Amino acid sequence: METILELRHVTKAFKDFALKDISFSLKKGFIMGFIGPNGAGKSTTIRCLMDLVHPDSGEVLLFGQKFTGDNKALKQKIGFVYDQDVFFQELTAEKNKQIIAPFYEQWDDTIFYRYINEFQVPLNKKMKTLSKGTKMKFALAVALSHHAELIIMDEPTSGLDPVFRRELLDVLFDVIQDENKAIFFSTHITTDLEKIADYITFLLDGKILFSKEREELSELFRIVKGPKSLSTTIKQADTIAYKETSLGFEAFMPADVTEKLAKKTAFHIERPNLEEIMYYLVKSKKRETAY
Amino acid sequence: MRSLMKKDVMIQGKRTYLIMLAVLIIVSSQSYFEDAFFKLSIFSALVAWVFAVNTNFGKQISDEQNVLLLSLPLSRRTMVTAKYIMISVWFTAVFVMLFGLRFLFICLSGSTVIGSVFLYLSAFLIGLCTICILLSFYYFAYYRWGIKIVQTAAQFIWPICVALLPWINLNDQQLSGLLLLISVLISAVVLVLSYYRSVRLFEEKDL
């Protein structure tokens, strides 16, 4: 499969924050979830992808091509959804569409109005009067209406009700049935990713902690639970995060370590979900560890 | 490019068009401006300035709209170029409207339209040079220091310019070929310098 998106050793320093050596790639036909706590650098990374922020070093490649001064051809193939009010707030949704559509060679009004009807976006209302969820629906309709091959979304599910979040995931699932397309989206809501993401990339404090297949990820870590009497044993092992509870302890550790432990002592071992992985990794702040 | 220019016309807002039309009607009907091509031309430049500033730095515009535009299949250079081209579009539209209304009022009053082709052309060029110089500084300031600075500045610069207009001591007889040539040369140099510097600044800018 052809690589549609690739970052190679991208760094970008700001006054109080920096992206450090960001590298990952996404192939056609897949969905990549981009997770990390607030301030981890997800939006900045997405801005690098969209050529809104210039990296200090490293390369951003889209469709196998580097960003140059003129990225018109590349951007024809990208659909974007941002978690901010980028549209013209004083204009109606219809007027915003009239401004945006002419820039795309393959703009398809039929698809646009189909999504608008499906999402029930009132086109005659000013953008500033629409709810955050409705604005997001409009942005999504725009992103999907010009036959984009790569959809880049920054927190598309935030501010959406659970029903539409589910609908959105269904739409994305439909989109990805075309194997020539790929979806890259950042989110806090990890349960969404567990439903549809093929790959998960985790960013913490401006560094990539891991970029792996979702299935592979669930094999990497374990949560070990046990009574307080076993806490000394577990503390001696290579735990990533450890916390004591009223009933005993919970330790988050690499899966291979738990296998060795399980042979010696009877611990209760669970597979963590994505939210737990994110929680424990952020909590542990073991940033130097590569998984 | 055309789509960007069309966007500027669309985001202007009906209220601005209506207010400016009312201003143009009032001004073009005033006897104060009788036989004052030069002043009417400068006034056209100031009205065009309102349109240009409003589309680029009005209250409804923020850096987020740049994020939208830059995510579209557009180069940064094209975005800057469209802004500079729109200077002449706004000015031409206002100039034609103002002088058109002036003709209308003259005809309605039963008088005959006065002025030579040279006078109209001179007035047009003087006005265009004025707006080009004004907005060259203004656009450069925007790309150099950001939208907040120019949004604040806009609230002071325009009223000051309008207040100064009656004090400009230059009548139509002084609209000579030499004055025109100097104006065109100065504005061309300022415009080109401002344009290239703005492109450079915008191409380097992080949003």
What would you say this structure looks like, in words?
The complex is a heterodimer of chains A (291) and B (207). With 291 residues, chain A is an alpha/beta fold. Chain A has two domains: 3-205, P-loop containing nucleotide triphosphate hydrolases (Rossmann fold, 3-Layer(aba) Sandwich); 217-284. Chain A has helices at residues 42-49, 72-76, 93-100, 109-119, 132-143, 162-175, 190-196, 214-220, 231-236, 255-264, 274-284, and strands spanning 3-13, 18-27, 31-35, 57-62, 65-66, 78-81, 150-154, 182-186, 199-204, 207-213, 221-226, 241-244, 249-254, 268-270. Chain A has a six-stranded mixed beta sheet with strand order 6-7-8-3-9-10, sandwiched between helices. In chain A, α4 (109-119) packs antiparallel against α5 (132-143). Chain A is elongated. The two termini of chain A are 24 Å apart. In chain A, 41% of the residues are buried. The mean pLDDT of chain A is 86. Chain B has one domain (2-204). In chain B, 78% of the residues lie in helices and 0% in strands. Chain B has eight helices and no strands. Chain B is globular, with a radius of gyration of 18 Å. The model of chain B has no long low-confidence stretch (mean pLDDT 83). Classes of the chains: A alpha/beta (291), B mainly alpha (207). At the A-B interface, α2 and α3 of A face α1 and α4 of B. Chain B: Pfam families: ABC2_membrane_5 (PF13346). Chain B: The chain crosses the membrane at residues 16-33, 39-57, 84-105, 117-140, 152-169, 175-196. Chain B: This is ABC-2 family transporter protein.
